[in-house]
Design goal:
Blueprint lengths: L8 E6 L12 H17 L4 E6 L1 H4 L12 E5 L10 H4 L5 E7 L1 H14 L3 E10 L3 H13 L3 E3 L1 H9 L7 H5 L4
Parallel strand pairs: 1-2, 1-4, 2-3, 4-5, 5-6
Helix pairs in contact: 4-5
Pfam family, one: Isochorismatase
Protein name: Isochorismatase
Length: 177
Amino acid sequence: MRTINPETSTLLVIDFQSRLMPAIEDGAASTANARRLINAAAMLDVPTLFTEQNPKGLGSTVNELPTGNAAVVHKMTFDASRAETFPGMIPSRPDVVVAGCEAHVCVLQTVLGLLDAGRKVFVARDAIGSRRAESKEAAIRRMERHGAEIVTVEMVLFEWLGTAEHPRFREAVALIK
């Protein structure tokens, strides 16, 4: 199996929304880890795409995760890949690193959709969340069974860096300390 390459990766940040996050078990940790991925992606020139499920009902992306200049897909479908604007907004890179909520609904269905579309998907288990731990764990098992690789934020970061000689190594490692 190969490592995650920043030149072929996109970071997909799914539905970290203001009215949803208070209900997510250990939501602060998931949010903090997603922020680490977003910062690392910006540092290493990995494009980032955000989604928001029913933003009128669930609010916009939480302030802790500034979208900056990244594209945001507003959707009503649970599987983001079924949203009308999604195919034109996600970069055509083959690898997708996923963070998001809820693991057993929008994250799961989007991951399955991306796999069906032929993408290689890496789910950062410490940057996803659900209201209940058992829902998250069931989603992780199902995504893995269907071909997603389950990783951690640190795994992604160090694989994107590739070497301790990377010019941004110290700056990137500071994100996880």
